[in-house]
Amino acid sequence: MPIANGDLKTVGASTEIFEGGCDCQFIRYRLTRTPLFVHCCHCRWCQRETGSAFVLNALIEKACVELLNGQPQMVMTPSASGRGQNIARCPHCRVALWSHYGGAGPLFAFIRVGTLDDPDRFPPDIHIFTTSKQPWVVLPEGVPVMREYYDREQHWPKESLARRAAVLSA
Question: What domains are there in the chain, each with its CATH number?
Answer without folding.
Answer: 10-169 (3.90.1590.10)
